[in-house]
Amino acid sequence: MAVSVTQIKELRDATGSGILDCRQALEKADGDYKKAVDILRQKGLAKAAKRADREASEGKLELYSHSNGRIGVMVEINCETDFVARSDGFQKLAHEVALQIAAAAPLWIKEEDIPAEAIEHEKAIARKRYQEQGKPEHIIDRILDGVVEKFKNEKCLMRQEYIRDDELTIEKMLHENIAAMGENIVIRRFERWERGESIDD
């Protein structure tokens, strides 16, 4: 399939790979950004991917309070060196991730973190809704694939659209920062609290 210059630029900015390599990876992946990154990783061409195995134990805990203390966020973001941890770029990244968590309320960092029962629960709710609407089972099964993808996009931090730029996901933004700063960067963990929430929520 034909890939756009914008797609190539995004992949190149995020991975530091050459234009031709990015084009070929995107074509092979039918335009799927994540698959293209994986292809570059397999070929050993993605600088950001190469750094993914390096230990990231420096960094910071970013604390953010939103809406007059109605929402609070704590997020740990790690990098490899104290030098990068103290840089303006890293400090900004940590703040932007905290803002994202406050605004978009993800539940997990990565898709792999989602418990299977959470996916099944979403599917069961959607199945019941479509059954009540009288849709045939074979149609419902196809619809549920889309329901699951939407759920992942909404609840996984890395798959969420960046609140300041809906052309970017948090994963793409992270890759761009890894390429720019030259170190592995990991969003390690986060907590988000909203005033009035029950402890059991």
Q: CATH superfamily name of the largest domain?
A: Elongation factor Ts, dimerisation domain
What is the C-alpha radius of gyration, as a whole number of Å?
19 Å
Q: Uncertain runs with pLDDT below 50, 5 residues or more?
A: none
CATH class of the largest domain: Alpha Beta
**What is the total number of structural domains?**
3
Shape: flat
The assembly state of the depicted protein chains is: single chain
Given the structure, what is the number of helices? Answer: 9
Count of DSSP E strands? 5
Helix content: 40-55%
- The percent range for strand residues is 15-25%
Elements, N to C (H/E): HHHHEEHHHHEEHE
Q: Which structural class best describes the helix and strand composition?
A: alpha+beta
Q: Which architecture of the largest domain does the CATH hierarchy give at level 2?
A: 2-Layer Sandwich
State the major sheet: 3 strands, antiparallel
Would you tell me the overall average pLDDT?
87
First CA to last CA: what distance? 45 Å
**Which strand order spans the largest sheet, edge to edge or round the barrel?**
1-2-5
The CATH topology annotation of the largest domain reads as Tetrahydropterin Synthase, Chain A
Topology:
Elements: H1 5-15, H2 19-28, H3 33-42, H4 47-51, E1 58-66, E2 71-79, H5 82-85, H6 88-104, H7 116-132, H8 137-155, E3 161-162, E4 165-169, H9 170-181, E5 186-194
Antiparallel strand pairs: 1-2, 2-5, 3-4
Helix pairs in contact: 1-2, 1-9, 2-3, 6-9, 7-8
